[in-house]
Design brief:
Layout lengths: L1 H9 L3 H18 L8 H13 L5 H20 L9
Amino acid sequence: MVTMFLHAKARRSARTADTYGRELARFCEFAARPLDQVGLGDIQGYLEWRRLGGARKPASQGQIVAILQSFFRFAHRLGYLHVNPA
């Protein structure tokens, strides 16, 4: 699912796909569970973890939220997820 999402983003901008890919890799490592088992608490925990790890600026936090929302909306629209946790 992540690969499909990044492929769709790469058609617009390789730099965007790279940024999204790094953030989603961090999130998947943090969540350590299949995407269809991720919940809002996982996303909130990740945002806090990233904030404590240096992504403190509102713009950085906003970018992370936008990436996660975009990814989960994509997965939900394709039917991979029954519920969009973001």
